[in-house]
Specification:
PUA domain-like, five-stranded mixed beta sheet, DUF3427 domain-containing protein, NOV_C
Length: about 450
């Protein structure tokens, strides 16, 4: 059987060459994959898709490569074909009755994705673009500003260059209150699939990852995930969108280091809370459910509220509370003699707002992972909080390994307090529906 290659080094007519590949050959490849210790030369672990066989997950490209190698009597390597939803390899596996599911896992610190780290486009592609091809200065990762459905379906990656330079027709900016004023590519309209996906973005379900630089020749800085704030529905070619940068304010000195000049805050009442951080964090018992005002809530009536300022302040409160908990977890693990675990505590929310939890920590006795969702308020012990459907789902998935850390009395000059509860959220809290996500029936 003659095998020919294209200019990119890929096998030509792969579908035709493997039209007689059988399901049994794929299952034999799975057995070989297990015997090889689940590692195959030239193939990395899949970061975006799982091949599900008998309830167990396998990397689709690696298994397909082994099956193709045996069928063609030729050593098929990762660079010889592509994966992904529209690829010939996935179509063949699905034709044979195999299930391929998108992963719910997104790359983080161990894959090299670090908040405020510096990256080239190639660097970002290596972490977030599995199955894609990189061509410097052209193509999806080498040129475009919006990359859809990466790292997972429904996600997006934005590459933004601020400032004036040849060929730049946009007026993007970052404001003092952490808003990114952004314009899409010039040819895009309200009907463009990329624009429709972005304006429907929900940061608790999917990621929009921001890589930003201020000079065309500089590396990009990873600013973490964004949340959709508003858009101008009258704008066309390009479409105007405003995002919230979730990790705000920036660390001291970062803006000047990368040459980022902030424009005035969109909210005239915005004030940073750097000086309002509590001095420490003290644990208390959870509220006594028999004495709490169940079902009545503890909210306030808001008159002429500056909702943009309130949202920005809540983001700052949330981030500050998460940092207090991270330090609390690290201090506890060190005190228990588990420096090894303390060094692995991860602030997940800084790179993945859709994880369903904020912090990954560890039980000091068993070493088991803990998934911590932090809820912070300036109110008292019985103040209600909001929780997303994704967070509720993750609590069900992780069971007793999932924790709610509720920080209250958050104010400068005195210790903040917190209680914690593990397990299924629906069993530990009364959930009152306040909003519903509506999708048009067809």
């Amino acid at each position: 059987m003659s095998i020919e290659f294209g200019k990119a080094g890929r096998i030509n007519r792969l579908g035709s060459l493997l039209k007689n590949l059988s399901r049994e050959e794929v299952l034999e490849a799975v057995s070989r994959f297990e015997k090889l210790g689940r590692k195959v030369d030239s193939f990395d672990e899949s970061s975006r898709y799982d091949l599900i066989i008998n309830g167990k997950a396998y990397p689709p490209k690696a298994v397909f490569g082994l099956a193709a190698s045996a069928h063609l009597n030729f050593d098929v390597k990762s660079q010889h074909f592509v994966g992904g939803e529209a690829s010939a390899s996935f179509r063949i596996l699905q034709r044979l009755g195999f299930e391929i599911k998108p992963k719910t896992y997104r790359p983080g610190r161990k894959e090299g994705l670090i908040l405020h780290g510096n990256y080239s486009r190639r660097d970002a592609w290596k972490i977030l673009g599995e199955g894609d091809t990189f061509r410097a200065g052209s193509g999806t990762w080498g040129l475009q500003g919006i990359i859809r459905d990466r790292p997972l379906p429904g996600d997006a990656v934005l590459f933004v260059t601020l400032g004036s330079y040849e060929g730049n027709q946009y007026e993007d900016a970052v404001t003092e209150d952490g808003a990114l004023i952004w314009k899409s590519q010039a040819e895009q309209t309200q009907a463009s699939p990329a624009v429709r996906q972005l304006v429907a973005h929900d940061e608790t379900r999917n990621l929009v990852c921001l890589f930003l630089r201020t000079e065309e020749s500089a590396p990009y800085t990873y600013f973490g995930p964004l949340s959709f704030r508003e858009w101008d529905p009258a704008s066309e070619k390009p479409v105007h969108i405003v995002w919230n940068i979730l990790n705000w304010p920036l660390p001291e000195g970062l803006a000047s280091k990368i040459g980022l000049a902030l424009t005035p805050a969109l909210s005239p009442t915005y004030q940073p809370i750097e000086n309002d951080i509590p001095s420490s964090l003290t644990e208390t018992a959870p509220p006594d459910r028999s004495k709490s005002k169940s079902g009545k809530g503890n909210g306030n009536a808001y008159g002429n509220t500056d909702w943009a300022e309130r949202e920005a302040r809540n983001r700052q409160l949330g981030l500050a509370g998460e940092r207090l908990v991270i330090q609390k977890e690290i201090d506890h693990l060190v005190a228990e003699g588990r420096e090894d675990l303390a060094n692995s505590v991860e602030h997940t929310a800084t790179v993945n707002s859709a994880a369903g939890y904020d912090i990954r920590s560890f039980d000091s006795q068993t070493g088991q992972e803990k998934y911590i969702e932090v809820k912070t308020t300036t109110g008292d012990l019985n103040t209600d909080f909001f929780i997303s459907s994704n967070e509720i789902s993750k609590a069900e998935e992780y069971g007793e390994s999932y924790w709610i850390y509720r920080i209250y009395d958050f104010a400068a000059g005195r210790p903040a307090r917190f209680y914690r509860v593990s397990g299924n959220v629906t069993k530990n809290f009364d959930l009152v529906p306040t909003a519903f996500r509506a999708t048009r029936k067809f």
